[in-house]
Design a protein that fits this description.
single chain, Rossmann fold, 3 domains, six-stranded parallel sheet, 10 strands, binds iron/sulfur cluster
């Protein structure tokens, strides 16, 4: 990362990842498996096209009415007994969560999987403020134990194999014995986590879909930890990005069916939780208080750009990562971002700004695989090209954060020189002659050309110029 601009160095991190054979093998194996499972769920192209058209139309309709739906959602949630909080930034969202916990004297929090809480760096924030925040999704639990961040939005610990997890458990969990038996490893985590669910004073989760019509928060999960986190502790805090709202309850099934099939190749997830109210009088379980924190963090800005707005359709299925030829070779950590892969390449620069993240839209071969696989038809490659332009030469009035942040003074100078040479016949001839005469004297491997020539053949200079040939043919020089 550049100390001056805060820009991350994708080249360096991806090159490092490529040199790690075990990481590449782990990803290859995992991604091949996920692609096969997903493909088996969509055997009929006509059905797939119809389903994604429907899912895309649901998300498009929700975004078209976003401000109105958010107001309806708030009103319905409040009427149902939830407390709704709005956060413009992740700092505000963190402060809201901490204030709720402090109000109740809570120092132990159990967490279901939530990418928005990753965006907030909530665990670090809470730990710095004296709150134990424990991840309870198995993958998240594993990487938290190892002090890492997720490498995939659906399968956060996909970069690890069972041997690495066995070693980690052996080192970090009291009484855990080394075993590579996956069931035994899962049982060990379960033993630790089960106790924590009962000790925690609060639970936190993400939200997959928030239904404006009924004020229902929908949570998709496979391990039951989401249900335990939201129902066992007396307080439940849900955090969501403001784009997660949908208009009607009937909008959920079309999204759910493409989400689970695209994400893990399952026809439906093991658990689907619908949370509408805190525990009512006479009810035997459920939290006594439910809070909903709705986070903006740049989403309103994305929403205000009619072309980039489609980024907010995303339902975080992760399929674009599984199919991306770049992601599958370098894994998620090389992006140094909460959201890696194709969705991260369009979302992260828009949230964090192009000054810091101008390299990410270039981390793609534009092969189109992500766009073809996206169940809500986000034109990812088109947005990547748009962001590349925004980084180099933004249009007047651009709404993208730090537009133009990828410009390099050296590159500007080079293009200005190129333009001058190609618009002045005299300069063009002088440049051609100079290149012909002095080019061969240039030392091989000029640092400026190193990166370019590493994977390309340096063109050979012609012995005679085009002008010479034209003159020889007797064609008058223009
Ligand atoms: S961009 Fe599309 S494919 Fe990628 S995570 Fe979002 S919904 Fe899934």
């Amino acid at each position: 990362m550049s100390a001056e601009t805060g820009a991350t160095d994708f080249h360096a991190s991806s090159s490092k990842a490529l040199l790690d054979p075990s990481l590449r093998a782990n990803f290859r194996r995992a991604m091949d498996g996920l692609m096969a499972k997903r493909a088996a769920q969509f055997p009929d192209p006509a059905e797939w096209n119809a389903l994604r058209d429907l899912a895309a139309s649901v998300r498009t309709r929700a975004l078209a009415k976003l401000p109105e739906l958010l107001e309806t959602l708030e009103a319905k949630c409040v009427a149902n007994g939830l407390k709704v909080h709005w956060a413009a930034t992740t700092d505000e969202a963190n402060a809201i969560v901490l204030a709720i916990l402090r109000d109740h004297g809570a120092t132990r929090l159990v967490k279901g999987k939530s990418m928005v809480s990753e965006e907030m760096h909530l665990n670090d924030f809470l730990s710095a403020n004296g709150v134990e925040s424990l991840e309870t999704d198995l993958g998240e639990y594993i990487i938290q134990l190892d002090g890492e961040t997720p490498s995939h939005i659906i399968m956060p610990a996909i970069h690890k194999n069972k041997q690495q997890i066995a070693r980690l458990f052996g080192q970090k969990i009291r009484d855990a014995v080394y075993t590579e038996d996956v069931d035994a490893l899962t049982a060990t985590a379960r033993r630790v986590l089960r106790q924590k669910f009962f000790e925690a004073e609060a639970g936190l989760s993400g939200v997959n879909f928030a239904v404006a019509e009924t004020g229902t928060l929908c949570l998709v999960e496979n391990e039951g930890n989401g249900r335990m986190s939201t129902h066992v502790p007396p307080i439940h805090i849900a955090v969501m990005g403001l784009e997660k709202v949908v208009e009607r309850l009937e909008d959920v099934p079309p999204l759910l069916t493409v989400l689970t099939r695209s994400a893990t190749g399952q026809p439906i997830s093991t658990y689907f939780n619908m949370i509408t109210a805190p525990r009512g009088p006479g009810e035997k379980d459920g939290p006594r208080e439910v809070h909903l924190v709705i986070l903006d963090n740049g989403r309103s800005r994305i929403f205000s750009d009619s072309e980039l707005q489609v980024t907010l359709r995303c339902i975080r299925c992760g399929a674009c990562m599984n199919y991306c030829p770049v992601y599958t070779r370098i894994g998620g950590h090389a992006y140094e971002a909460i959201y890696p892969g194709p969705i991260g390449m369009i979302l992260t620069p828009q949230i964090e700004g192009l000054k810091r993240r101008h390299e990410l839209p270039h981390a793609s071969s534009l092969c189109h695989a992500c766009t073809e696989i996206c169940p809500v038809e986000i034109p990812i490659t088109r947005l990547l090209v748009r962001l590349r332009k925004e980084a180099a030469q933004p249009p007047a009035g651009s709404k993208v954060l730090d537009a133009g942040g990828g410009r390099s003074r050296l590159e500007d100078l080079a293009w200005a020189g190129w333009q001058a040479a190609h618009t002045s016949p005299l300069l063009y001839r002088v440049m051609g002659t100079a290149l012909r005469l002095f080019g061969p004297l240039a030392p091989r491997g000029l640092p400026l050309l190193n990166a370019w020539t590493k994977s390309r053949t340096v063109p050979k200079r012609a012995k005679r110029t085009l002008q010479d040939l034209v003159r020889e043919k007797g064609i008058p020089d223009a």
